[in-house]
Amino acid sequence: MRNIKNNLKTILSLCMAMTMPTILSAATSFASVSPIENKSAGNNTESVAFTSQEESINKNDQLCIDTNLGRTRLKNLLLNRRGAVLTFDDGPHPNTTPHILDILKKRNLKATFFVLGLQAKKYPEIIKRIHDEGHIVGNHTYGHKDLTKLKPAQIKTEIENTNCLIEKITGEKPKFIRPPYGAVNHKVLDAINEAGMSMVLWTVDTRDWHSKNEKAVLKEVDRQLHITKGDCIGGAILMHDIYPSTVKALDPVLDKLAANNYKIYAINNLGNTESDFWSVRSPVICKKALGSIHIDPNISGNPLMVSLLKEDSKEKPTQMGMLRAHKKGNLLIYMAMMK
Ligand code: ZN
Questions:
Q1: Domain boundaries, the chain
Q2: Which long-range contacts (CB under 8 A, 24 or more apart) does 188-195 make?
Q3: For this structure, is 61 an active site residue?
Q4: Which of 39, 236, 301, 335 has its CA 20 to 30 A from that of 280?
Q5: pTM of the model
């Protein structure tokens, strides 16, 4: 029943939020984001920075932006540049990560490695090498659990333990985090915000973990960036530096990107607002705002709605009471009375 009540709250909050003119104006402002580019001499990887009207939008309005906009913004940003961002998850692994690093070094490209605390603990020297060679070390949690299934304290531990480990090795606290599976809910976003980190997802899934085949990886990149199709788009490419097939795929992928005039961008200057993350195709969560909008239920003047929207009280309905109310067809009223 609590879920029903919460869902009703969410739906009602959403309806009321949709009518807020400030949100509409914020969304309009986001549509006209204009990126700038920071070029660093002698380096084939460029940093991407945003300058946009969003800086003038207050924090509450930013929280109301659908995460899909993050993906759209990134797509637009990279589209105009034929840009790709390279990201590697789940490492480091001693058999494969060093080869990935060799290839990137040879080509003077920078990538982001979302590492697991578990692996960082085992192979600190590889983490150090990633950092020393100018790549970004991001947090992919300690043990690759689905964070949405954990309690807030456990989520915090997964994030903080990994940050501590990385900081001990590199001297820098990671700024970026990629939750395993791209699985996110309010609790996860709250924990990420609390840790002062930015979430980074992806727009191109090479599915290297599934195919474990270099030709299939190349094909996915080609298909998802519309290269052969002829209307190339930019993207943030997800790979895993723990498979030999991904190592084998990297040179051909980078050759293909280069042959089609793609530039490889770094993510270390992507911006610092909460909406600056890239979204998965079907984000598990759409709005962070719902938990943040404060609504006075008395505005509605409807006693039942007032009861439903009121903060949860400590008083719990009894099973017998619920059963009786259910039989009489008064379950909603009973729940409302429980407040
Ligand atoms: Zn992963």
A1: 2-291, 297-338
A2: 188/147, 188/148, 188/155, 188/285, 189/285, 189/288, 190/152, 191/147, 191/152, 191/155, 191/156, 191/159, 192/159, 193/274, 194/156, 195/156, 195/159, 195/160, 195/163
A3: no
A4: 39
A5: 0.64
